[in-house]
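note to self — DONT lose this again. spent like an hour looking for the file last time. sequence + predicted structure for the chain T wanted, 443 res
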Amino acid sequence: MLSAATGSRESRAPVAMGIVDPAPLFSPFDLASRRSLAVAVSGGSDSTALLLLLKAWLDTHAPRTALHAVTVDHDLRPGSASEARQVGDLCAAFGVTHRVLRWDGPKPTTGLLAAAREARYALLAKAAHAVAADIMFTGHTADDQAETLRMRRARGEGRGLAGMAPLTLFDGDVWIARPLLGLSRQTLREHLRARGQGWTEDPTNADMRYERPRLRAARDPADAPLPAEALRAAATRQRLGEAAAELIATHAGLAAPGLIRLDPAFFRSGAPEAETYALRILLAVAGGSAHLPEREGAATLAVRLRAGKTFRATLSRTLLDSRRAGIFLLREARGLPPLAADDDAWDGRYRLSGAASSGPEIGRRLGPALAAAASGSLLRHAETTLPALPPGWTAIPLLAPWSRFLPCFDLAPARAAAALVGAAEIPAPPWAPPCPGHIDHEP
Protein backbone atom coordinates (compact mmCIF):
# COMPACT_ATOMS: atom_id res chain seq x y z
CA MET A 1 0.00 0.00 0.00
CA LEU A 2 1.06 3.60 -0.42
CA SER A 3 2.65 5.16 2.65
CA ALA A 4 1.03 8.27 4.11
CA ALA A 5 2.92 11.54 4.19
CA THR A 6 2.45 14.47 6.51
CA GLY A 7 1.46 18.03 5.76
CA SER A 8 1.94 21.21 7.72
CA ARG A 9 -0.43 23.96 6.54
CA GLU A 10 -3.92 24.15 7.96
CA SER A 11 -6.66 23.61 5.41
CA ARG A 12 -8.74 26.61 4.38
CA ALA A 13 -11.18 24.64 2.20
CA PRO A 14 -14.94 24.80 2.81
CA VAL A 15 -15.15 21.07 3.44
CA ALA A 16 -16.88 18.98 6.08
CA MET A 17 -14.60 16.83 8.25
CA GLY A 18 -11.82 17.12 5.68
CA ILE A 19 -13.92 15.69 2.84
CA VAL A 20 -13.80 17.59 -0.48
CA ASP A 21 -17.08 17.86 -2.38
CA PRO A 22 -16.50 16.68 -5.98
CA ALA A 23 -19.56 18.51 -7.34
CA PRO A 24 -17.90 21.89 -8.05
CA LEU A 25 -14.97 20.05 -9.61
CA PHE A 26 -16.78 17.83 -12.11
CA SER A 27 -20.40 18.94 -12.51
CA PRO A 28 -19.48 21.56 -15.17
CA PHE A 29 -18.07 18.77 -17.38
CA ASP A 30 -20.12 16.79 -19.86
CA LEU A 31 -18.99 13.36 -18.62
CA ALA A 32 -22.10 11.18 -18.81
CA SER A 33 -22.19 11.39 -22.62
CA ARG A 34 -18.65 10.04 -22.92
CA ARG A 35 -17.82 6.37 -23.22
CA SER A 36 -14.47 6.70 -21.44
CA LEU A 37 -12.23 9.16 -19.63
CA ALA A 38 -8.56 9.12 -18.72
CA VAL A 39 -6.81 10.37 -15.60
CA ALA A 40 -3.08 10.80 -14.99
CA VAL A 41 -2.03 9.24 -11.67
CA SER A 42 1.54 9.38 -10.41
CA GLY A 43 0.78 8.13 -6.90
CA GLY A 44 1.40 11.50 -5.25
CA SER A 45 -1.22 13.11 -3.06
CA ASP A 46 -2.63 15.39 -5.76
CA SER A 47 -3.26 12.76 -8.41
CA THR A 48 -4.38 10.17 -5.86
CA ALA A 49 -7.01 12.58 -4.55
CA LEU A 50 -8.06 13.34 -8.12
CA LEU A 51 -8.51 9.65 -8.85
CA LEU A 52 -10.71 9.08 -5.81
CA LEU A 53 -12.80 12.20 -6.32
CA LEU A 54 -13.36 11.55 -10.02
CA LYS A 55 -14.21 7.89 -9.45
CA ALA A 56 -16.74 8.81 -6.73
CA TRP A 57 -18.38 11.36 -9.03
CA LEU A 58 -18.62 8.96 -11.97
CA ASP A 59 -20.04 6.15 -9.82
CA THR A 60 -22.95 8.40 -8.87
CA HIS A 61 -23.49 10.61 -11.92
CA ALA A 62 -22.02 8.77 -14.92
CA PRO A 63 -21.80 5.05 -14.04
CA ARG A 64 -21.59 3.98 -17.69
CA THR A 65 -18.50 6.10 -18.35
CA ALA A 66 -15.34 4.02 -17.96
CA LEU A 67 -12.37 5.55 -16.14
CA HIS A 68 -8.84 4.65 -17.22
CA ALA A 69 -5.81 5.63 -15.15
CA VAL A 70 -2.41 6.26 -16.72
CA THR A 71 0.99 6.47 -15.06
CA VAL A 72 3.96 7.85 -16.96
CA ASP A 73 7.26 6.36 -15.85
CA HIS A 74 9.93 8.82 -16.93
CA ASP A 75 12.65 6.31 -16.05
CA LEU A 76 14.77 9.07 -14.54
CA ARG A 77 15.47 7.56 -11.10
CA PRO A 78 15.53 4.22 -9.31
CA GLY A 79 12.21 3.15 -7.87
CA SER A 80 9.98 4.77 -10.45
CA ALA A 81 8.85 1.43 -11.89
CA SER A 82 7.99 0.13 -8.41
CA GLU A 83 5.95 3.27 -7.68
CA ALA A 84 4.05 2.81 -10.95
CA ARG A 85 3.17 -0.74 -9.88
CA GLN A 86 1.86 0.59 -6.55
CA VAL A 87 -0.44 2.93 -8.48
CA GLY A 88 -1.70 -0.11 -10.36
CA ASP A 89 -2.54 -1.80 -7.05
CA LEU A 90 -4.41 1.31 -5.91
CA CYS A 91 -6.40 1.50 -9.13
CA ALA A 92 -7.29 -2.20 -8.93
CA ALA A 93 -8.64 -1.66 -5.42
CA PHE A 94 -11.05 0.95 -6.79
CA GLY A 95 -11.98 -0.96 -9.93
CA VAL A 96 -10.15 1.38 -12.30
CA THR A 97 -8.13 0.05 -15.21
CA HIS A 98 -4.50 1.14 -15.18
CA ARG A 99 -1.74 1.43 -17.73
CA VAL A 100 1.92 2.36 -17.36
CA LEU A 101 3.70 4.13 -20.21
CA ARG A 102 7.46 4.50 -20.05
CA TRP A 103 9.59 7.26 -21.51
CA ASP A 104 12.16 5.11 -23.26
CA GLY A 105 15.31 6.07 -25.08
CA PRO A 106 18.18 8.43 -24.29
CA LYS A 107 17.43 11.49 -22.18
CA PRO A 108 18.77 14.96 -23.03
CA THR A 109 21.61 16.37 -20.95
CA THR A 110 20.12 19.88 -21.10
CA GLY A 111 16.51 20.95 -20.92
CA LEU A 112 15.58 17.69 -19.21
CA LEU A 113 12.45 18.93 -17.45
CA ALA A 114 11.05 20.53 -20.61
CA ALA A 115 11.72 17.35 -22.56
CA ALA A 116 10.13 15.25 -19.81
CA ARG A 117 7.04 17.47 -19.87
CA GLU A 118 6.71 17.11 -23.64
CA ALA A 119 7.18 13.34 -23.42
CA ARG A 120 4.68 13.08 -20.58
CA TYR A 121 1.89 14.83 -22.46
CA ALA A 122 2.60 12.89 -25.64
CA LEU A 123 2.35 9.61 -23.73
CA LEU A 124 -0.80 10.73 -21.92
CA ALA A 125 -2.40 11.63 -25.25
CA LYS A 126 -1.38 8.24 -26.64
CA ALA A 127 -3.07 6.56 -23.69
CA ALA A 128 -6.22 8.65 -24.18
CA HIS A 129 -6.36 7.69 -27.85
CA ALA A 130 -6.04 4.01 -26.92
CA VAL A 131 -9.28 4.14 -24.90
CA ALA A 132 -11.10 6.60 -27.22
CA ALA A 133 -11.05 9.34 -24.57
CA ASP A 134 -10.89 13.02 -25.44
CA ILE A 135 -10.31 14.22 -21.85
CA MET A 136 -7.22 13.56 -19.75
CA PHE A 137 -7.59 14.79 -16.15
CA THR A 138 -4.44 15.90 -14.32
CA GLY A 139 -3.92 16.78 -10.65
CA HIS A 140 -2.41 20.27 -10.87
CA THR A 141 -3.30 22.26 -7.74
CA ALA A 142 -3.35 25.84 -6.52
CA ASP A 143 0.17 25.26 -5.19
CA ASP A 144 1.37 24.26 -8.67
CA GLN A 145 -0.34 27.33 -10.07
CA ALA A 146 1.38 29.64 -7.58
CA GLU A 147 4.78 28.14 -8.42
CA THR A 148 4.11 28.52 -12.14
CA LEU A 149 3.17 32.17 -11.69
CA ARG A 150 6.28 32.91 -9.64
CA MET A 151 8.52 31.38 -12.30
CA ARG A 152 6.78 33.31 -15.06
CA ARG A 153 6.94 36.59 -13.15
CA ALA A 154 10.68 36.10 -12.74
CA ARG A 155 10.97 35.75 -16.52
CA GLY A 156 8.68 38.70 -17.21
CA GLU A 157 6.19 36.65 -19.24
CA GLY A 158 3.20 38.88 -19.98
CA ARG A 159 0.59 36.46 -21.37
CA GLY A 160 1.97 33.71 -19.17
CA LEU A 161 0.92 35.57 -16.04
CA ALA A 162 -2.56 34.12 -16.58
CA GLY A 163 -1.09 30.89 -15.24
CA MET A 164 -1.98 27.36 -16.23
CA ALA A 165 -5.31 27.13 -18.03
CA PRO A 166 -7.99 24.89 -16.51
CA LEU A 167 -8.44 23.39 -19.97
CA THR A 168 -5.76 22.94 -22.63
CA LEU A 169 -6.20 21.22 -25.98
CA PHE A 170 -3.21 18.99 -26.73
CA ASP A 171 -2.28 18.09 -30.29
CA GLY A 172 -5.70 19.16 -31.54
CA ASP A 173 -7.77 16.34 -30.06
CA VAL A 174 -7.22 15.65 -26.33
CA TRP A 175 -8.35 18.09 -23.65
CA ILE A 176 -6.03 18.32 -20.64
CA ALA A 177 -8.37 19.17 -17.75
CA ARG A 178 -7.11 20.57 -14.44
CA PRO A 179 -10.11 20.63 -12.09
CA LEU A 180 -8.02 20.97 -8.89
CA LEU A 181 -6.46 24.36 -9.67
CA GLY A 182 -8.68 25.97 -7.02
CA LEU A 183 -7.66 23.57 -4.25
CA SER A 184 -4.50 23.52 -2.16
CA ARG A 185 -2.34 20.44 -1.76
CA GLN A 186 -2.99 20.54 1.98
CA THR A 187 -6.74 20.35 1.43
CA LEU A 188 -6.35 17.32 -0.81
CA ARG A 189 -4.12 15.60 1.72
CA GLU A 190 -6.68 16.18 4.44
CA HIS A 191 -9.26 14.61 2.16
CA LEU A 192 -7.06 11.54 1.73
CA ARG A 193 -6.41 11.28 5.46
CA ALA A 194 -10.12 11.45 6.14
CA ARG A 195 -10.55 8.56 3.72
CA GLY A 196 -7.68 6.60 5.25
CA GLN A 197 -5.80 6.74 1.97
CA GLY A 198 -2.05 7.21 1.71
CA TRP A 199 0.17 8.39 -1.12
CA THR A 200 3.80 8.40 -2.21
CA GLU A 201 6.28 11.25 -2.14
CA ASP A 202 8.35 11.86 -5.26
CA PRO A 203 11.93 12.66 -4.13
CA THR A 204 12.29 14.91 -7.17
CA ASN A 205 9.95 17.37 -5.43
CA ALA A 206 12.69 18.00 -2.85
CA ASP A 207 15.61 18.06 -5.30
CA MET A 208 17.05 21.57 -5.14
CA ARG A 209 18.69 21.19 -8.53
CA TYR A 210 15.29 22.03 -10.03
CA GLU A 211 13.47 25.35 -10.07
CA ARG A 212 10.12 24.25 -8.64
CA PRO A 213 11.52 22.67 -5.46
CA ARG A 214 13.62 25.78 -4.86
CA LEU A 215 10.57 28.00 -5.22
CA ARG A 216 8.54 25.67 -3.01
CA ALA A 217 11.15 25.83 -0.26
CA ALA A 218 11.42 29.62 -0.44
CA ARG A 219 7.70 30.33 -0.62
CA ASP A 220 6.04 32.27 2.16
CA PRO A 221 3.14 30.16 3.54
CA ALA A 222 1.07 33.36 3.70
CA ASP A 223 1.20 33.77 -0.08
CA ALA A 224 -2.20 33.49 -1.73
CA PRO A 225 -2.38 30.36 -3.92
CA LEU A 226 -4.12 32.30 -6.69
CA PRO A 227 -2.97 35.94 -6.67
CA ALA A 228 -5.50 38.50 -7.76
CA GLU A 229 -3.20 39.70 -10.51
CA ALA A 230 -3.30 36.24 -12.11
CA LEU A 231 -7.07 36.36 -12.23
CA ARG A 232 -6.92 39.76 -13.87
CA ALA A 233 -4.28 38.56 -16.33
CA ALA A 234 -6.45 35.61 -17.36
CA ALA A 235 -9.48 37.84 -17.93
CA THR A 236 -7.40 40.38 -19.85
CA ARG A 237 -5.87 37.68 -22.04
CA GLN A 238 -9.30 36.33 -22.95
CA ARG A 239 -10.74 39.76 -23.72
CA LEU A 240 -7.72 40.72 -25.80
CA GLY A 241 -7.94 37.41 -27.64
CA GLU A 242 -11.58 38.01 -28.49
CA ALA A 243 -10.77 41.46 -29.88
CA ALA A 244 -7.86 40.04 -31.88
CA ALA A 245 -10.13 37.30 -33.24
CA GLU A 246 -12.56 39.93 -34.51
CA LEU A 247 -9.76 41.76 -36.33
CA ILE A 248 -8.49 38.55 -37.93
CA ALA A 249 -11.96 37.48 -39.02
CA THR A 250 -12.80 40.92 -40.45
CA HIS A 251 -9.56 42.18 -41.97
CA ALA A 252 -7.34 39.16 -42.75
CA GLY A 253 -7.52 36.82 -45.71
CA LEU A 254 -5.49 34.07 -47.39
CA ALA A 255 -4.26 35.42 -50.72
CA ALA A 256 -2.71 32.03 -51.55
CA PRO A 257 -1.36 29.08 -49.58
CA GLY A 258 1.39 30.46 -47.39
CA LEU A 259 0.46 34.09 -48.06
CA ILE A 260 -1.70 36.07 -45.60
CA ARG A 261 -3.04 39.49 -46.55
CA LEU A 262 -4.18 42.13 -44.07
CA ASP A 263 -6.39 44.98 -45.13
CA PRO A 264 -4.95 48.38 -44.09
CA ALA A 265 -8.13 48.83 -42.02
CA PHE A 266 -6.67 46.17 -39.73
CA PHE A 267 -4.60 48.93 -38.11
CA ARG A 268 -7.37 51.52 -37.94
CA SER A 269 -9.59 49.76 -35.40
CA GLY A 270 -8.86 52.21 -32.57
CA ALA A 271 -7.70 49.31 -30.38
CA PRO A 272 -3.89 49.31 -30.64
CA GLU A 273 -3.33 46.56 -28.06
CA ALA A 274 -5.67 44.21 -29.92
CA GLU A 275 -4.02 45.12 -33.23
CA THR A 276 -0.56 44.34 -31.88
CA TYR A 277 -1.74 41.08 -30.31
CA ALA A 278 -3.45 39.98 -33.53
CA LEU A 279 -0.30 40.86 -35.50
CA ARG A 280 1.82 38.76 -33.12
CA ILE A 281 -0.52 35.81 -33.63
CA LEU A 282 -0.45 36.07 -37.41
CA LEU A 283 3.33 36.48 -37.51
CA ALA A 284 3.64 33.21 -35.57
CA VAL A 285 1.07 31.47 -37.77
CA ALA A 286 2.76 32.58 -41.00
CA GLY A 287 6.24 31.69 -39.76
CA GLY A 288 5.32 28.42 -38.08
CA SER A 289 6.71 29.63 -34.76
CA ALA A 290 5.88 27.76 -31.56
CA HIS A 291 5.83 31.08 -29.65
CA LEU A 292 4.44 34.54 -30.32
CA PRO A 293 7.10 37.12 -31.19
CA GLU A 294 8.04 39.58 -28.49
CA ARG A 295 5.46 42.30 -27.99
CA GLU A 296 7.99 45.14 -28.36
CA GLY A 297 9.06 44.12 -31.86
CA ALA A 298 5.49 43.64 -33.04
CA ALA A 299 4.41 46.93 -31.48
CA THR A 300 7.16 48.76 -33.39
CA LEU A 301 5.91 47.24 -36.65
CA ALA A 302 2.31 48.12 -35.78
CA VAL A 303 3.23 51.80 -35.30
CA ARG A 304 4.69 51.94 -38.81
CA LEU A 305 1.72 50.10 -40.26
CA ARG A 306 -0.76 52.51 -38.64
CA ALA A 307 1.15 55.32 -40.31
CA GLY A 308 0.61 53.68 -43.70
CA LYS A 309 4.30 53.13 -44.34
CA THR A 310 5.41 50.87 -47.18
CA PHE A 311 8.32 48.73 -46.03
CA ARG A 312 9.65 45.22 -45.55
CA ALA A 313 10.67 43.66 -42.25
CA THR A 314 11.32 40.22 -40.82
CA LEU A 315 10.20 39.01 -37.39
CA SER A 316 9.72 35.51 -35.97
CA ARG A 317 10.72 33.80 -39.27
CA THR A 318 8.05 35.84 -41.08
CA LEU A 319 8.50 38.39 -43.83
CA LEU A 320 6.14 41.34 -43.52
CA ASP A 321 5.67 43.29 -46.76
CA SER A 322 3.56 46.43 -46.46
CA ARG A 323 2.30 47.67 -49.85
CA ARG A 324 -0.48 49.84 -51.19
CA ALA A 325 -2.41 46.68 -52.04
CA GLY A 326 -2.26 45.49 -48.46
CA ILE A 327 0.00 44.08 -45.79
CA PHE A 328 1.34 40.62 -46.60
CA LEU A 329 2.78 38.01 -44.24
CA LEU A 330 4.69 34.94 -45.43
CA ARG A 331 7.43 32.61 -44.25
CA GLU A 332 10.94 33.83 -45.02
CA ALA A 333 12.64 31.56 -47.55
CA ARG A 334 15.49 30.22 -45.47
CA GLY A 335 16.00 27.45 -42.97
CA LEU A 336 13.26 25.26 -44.46
CA PRO A 337 13.50 21.63 -43.28
CA PRO A 338 13.76 18.62 -45.60
CA LEU A 339 10.70 16.52 -46.36
CA ALA A 340 9.97 13.47 -44.26
CA ALA A 341 7.06 11.08 -44.65
CA ASP A 342 4.44 11.39 -41.91
CA ASP A 343 5.97 14.56 -40.48
CA ASP A 344 3.63 15.85 -37.75
CA ALA A 345 4.91 19.41 -37.93
CA TRP A 346 6.90 20.24 -41.03
CA ASP A 347 8.37 23.69 -40.40
CA GLY A 348 5.71 24.13 -37.71
CA ARG A 349 3.19 24.88 -40.47
CA TYR A 350 2.01 21.62 -42.06
CA ARG A 351 1.32 18.03 -41.15
CA LEU A 352 2.63 15.84 -43.97
CA SER A 353 1.56 12.35 -44.86
CA GLY A 354 2.44 10.07 -47.73
CA ALA A 355 4.79 7.37 -48.89
CA ALA A 356 8.37 8.23 -49.75
CA SER A 357 8.83 8.52 -53.49
CA SER A 358 11.89 8.39 -55.72
CA GLY A 359 10.09 10.37 -58.39
CA PRO A 360 10.78 14.00 -59.19
CA GLU A 361 9.46 16.79 -57.02
CA ILE A 362 6.40 18.55 -58.36
CA GLY A 363 7.29 22.00 -57.09
CA ARG A 364 6.88 23.67 -53.73
CA ARG A 365 3.11 23.79 -53.80
CA LEU A 366 0.03 22.28 -52.22
CA GLY A 367 -1.93 22.01 -55.45
CA PRO A 368 -2.31 23.34 -58.98
CA ALA A 369 -4.19 26.49 -57.95
CA LEU A 370 -1.10 28.24 -56.68
CA ALA A 371 1.00 27.23 -59.69
CA ALA A 372 -1.63 28.68 -62.02
CA ALA A 373 -1.84 31.91 -60.05
CA ALA A 374 1.86 32.31 -59.34
CA SER A 375 2.52 35.73 -60.81
CA GLY A 376 4.24 38.46 -58.89
CA SER A 377 7.11 38.34 -56.46
CA LEU A 378 5.01 37.62 -53.37
CA LEU A 379 3.26 34.61 -54.90
CA ARG A 380 6.54 33.24 -56.17
CA HIS A 381 8.14 33.77 -52.78
CA ALA A 382 5.22 32.07 -51.01
CA GLU A 383 5.46 29.12 -53.39
CA THR A 384 9.12 28.54 -52.52
CA THR A 385 8.28 28.27 -48.80
CA LEU A 386 5.74 25.45 -49.19
CA PRO A 387 6.64 21.77 -48.90
CA ALA A 388 7.72 20.18 -52.17
CA LEU A 389 5.24 17.31 -52.25
CA PRO A 390 5.93 14.13 -54.21
CA PRO A 391 2.87 12.56 -55.89
CA GLY A 392 0.40 11.11 -53.41
CA TRP A 393 1.51 13.22 -50.45
CA THR A 394 -0.79 15.60 -48.58
CA ALA A 395 -0.13 18.64 -46.41
CA ILE A 396 -2.61 19.88 -43.83
CA PRO A 397 -2.09 23.39 -42.39
CA LEU A 398 -1.18 23.53 -38.71
CA LEU A 399 -2.08 26.27 -36.29
CA ALA A 400 1.25 27.53 -34.99
CA PRO A 401 1.70 28.55 -32.21
CA TRP A 402 -1.12 26.36 -30.84
CA SER A 403 -0.72 23.12 -32.77
CA ARG A 404 0.70 21.39 -29.67
CA PHE A 405 -0.82 23.24 -26.69
CA LEU A 406 -3.92 25.43 -26.96
CA PRO A 407 -4.95 26.96 -23.60
CA CYS A 408 -8.64 27.71 -23.39
CA PHE A 409 -7.73 31.38 -22.79
CA ASP A 410 -6.82 31.53 -26.49
CA LEU A 411 -9.76 29.72 -28.08
CA ALA A 412 -11.22 32.78 -29.81
CA PRO A 413 -8.09 33.90 -31.71
CA ALA A 414 -7.10 30.29 -32.40
CA ARG A 415 -10.45 29.62 -34.08
CA ALA A 416 -10.15 32.78 -36.16
CA ALA A 417 -6.62 31.86 -37.24
CA ALA A 418 -7.63 28.26 -38.02
CA ALA A 419 -10.43 29.48 -40.27
CA LEU A 420 -8.01 31.83 -42.00
CA VAL A 421 -5.36 29.26 -42.96
CA GLY A 422 -7.62 26.22 -43.33
CA ALA A 423 -6.35 24.34 -40.27
CA ALA A 424 -8.45 21.62 -38.66
CA GLU A 425 -11.53 22.79 -36.78
CA ILE A 426 -10.98 23.15 -33.04
CA PRO A 427 -13.27 20.80 -31.09
CA ALA A 428 -15.75 22.18 -28.59
CA PRO A 429 -14.46 22.21 -25.00
CA PRO A 430 -16.03 19.66 -22.64
CA TRP A 431 -16.93 22.39 -20.17
CA ALA A 432 -19.35 25.30 -20.35
CA PRO A 433 -18.43 28.13 -20.51
CA PRO A 434 -15.59 27.32 -22.93
CA CYS A 435 -12.90 28.59 -20.55
CA PRO A 436 -13.93 28.65 -16.90
CA GLY A 437 -10.98 30.69 -15.74
CA HIS A 438 -9.55 30.14 -12.28
CA ILE A 439 -12.22 28.40 -10.23
CA ASP A 440 -11.90 29.56 -6.66
CA HIS A 441 -12.95 26.62 -4.50
CA GLU A 442 -11.23 28.02 -1.41
CA PRO A 443 -11.63 31.35 0.36
